[in-house]
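Posted in: Protein Modeling Q&A

I'm a second-year student putting together a small comparison for a lab meeting, and my supervisor asked me to include a predicted structure for Integrase catalytic domain-containing protein. I've never done this before, so apologies if this is the wrong subforum. The sequence is pasted below exactly as I got it from our records. If anyone can share the structure token output, I'd also love a short note on what stands out.
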Amino acid sequence: MWDVICFDNAMSHTANMVKDRLSNLLHCSLNFGPVDMPMRRSLIERFFQSLEESGFHRLPNTTGSGPKDPRRNEPEQRAINYQITYEHLLELVDVLISNYNGTPHGGIYNQRPLELLQKRMEKGMTPRKLDKIKQSEMLFMQTAMKRTIRGSIASGKRPYIQYEGVEYRNERLANSAHLIGTEVTLHVNVDDIRVIKAFLPDGSELGYLSAAGKWSLTSHTLQIRQAINKLVTRRLLHFTYWDDPIFIYTEFLLSQAKIGKKRDVNKVKNVQEVARKKTNKKEQDTDPELMVRNEALERARTQVKVAKDIKSDDYDEILKDLKTITY
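Accepted answer (user: helix_wrangler)
Welcome! Here is the predicted structure, written out as tokens:
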């Protein structure tokens, strides 16, 4: 682990969550440099140049160093023609960094970076390592907040927690009407908000709470959820309880991309990349009723489509089959 991290003073680096995780989780100092002064970060700027000249700018889909760079030749179309994916770029970066660490450099007396590191470790330098318990990506992206348990005994509304426009609950919470009105602490992984972890005021775990309906199916970030809610508020997007909001959102972005809005193409790729992530196995094991409810929802959704072609006399029989777990 590093002891100091240097920034270029971009606004994204001043986010409270970033500063908190770097200081309290990684225990490193933050060095905010002046804006638009790359000479203050000469080493990292030189390394970025090596990545570009040795790798990215040699690709057929390179965007060059600017719009007027002669190496730029329809990069978007070439990326499609050669089927260059995000995974390919990750592999390229891995190879470039490996080559860099294994190549002698004049700045360190023609030694290889790995060779120099080995010599320093032999002289007693011990690299700082992050504890294994803190190495989880989820822990770094986790944020805490307070929410009040809602519900109504009079109307029969089972207890739940509202977060970003979606109800969350598990079996324990649904059967704990005495907790209505209690303020709990939520630990939310903003990279995947299908499930959140809740703690009672005394510190005991309430467990993992899953999002209601189809929100719990496809992995999505807090940013994606907020984008969907914004479109719903503007009445540009609509979905039912049986629909997967992420799929509906993807279809909307694709429709926008077809009419020439290129920024939506990148959004589609981002949504698809996030959707590939799987729910943490511990979360799945902690909330087994989630799978049962989702299977019932999928079965009901299919039967609703079939019911449209059935006579009204048989419709009551269909409705009986649609009964599922409700809260």
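A couple of things worth pointing out for your meeting: The first helix runs from residue 16 to 25. The CA atoms of residues 151 and 159 lie 4 Å apart.
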